[in-house]
Design a protein that fits this description.
The chain is an alpha+beta fold. It contains 5 helices and 5 strands.
Amino acid sequence: IDAYADPELMEDPAMKARVASQTGRLPFDWVDEIELRFVRWTREDDSAVLVDPISIWDVLEALSTDHELDLLPTNISMPEQGFTRSGHHEVPVRIAFRNPETASGRYTVKINAVSQQSLQDEMAKEEMAKAVADRSRFKIQQRGGAMDFETDSEEEEDE
């Protein structure tokens, strides 16, 4: 809260309800729109299994640095071993509010675990496609000697 803000306006449930009714959204509804993306190496024998699982601490750090949402581990429901497979995951998040009418308190954060190898494969395919496109453009280069000779002779005639 701003040092100069009027606490009565900040804590006024009627004001918050009015804002929610005007916008159609509650103050923390943006939490449901959060999508985190983690890129991890996967095992060579199984490309869906992450070598380094995504832990609750990784999720908390990403929420804090990327979205300025600071939570405790007890606010997030995740498997104890973290996410060990690539793909899309959903994490239930609970945020406690003094006044439950101002926000729902239960949200879902989406997590996308991407394989580092798949990203490298995609980049290699893009580079190959670019190389093929560049190679398919065939240009006949003109020799500059004939052009230079004509411009030189024109300059001599002008003098």
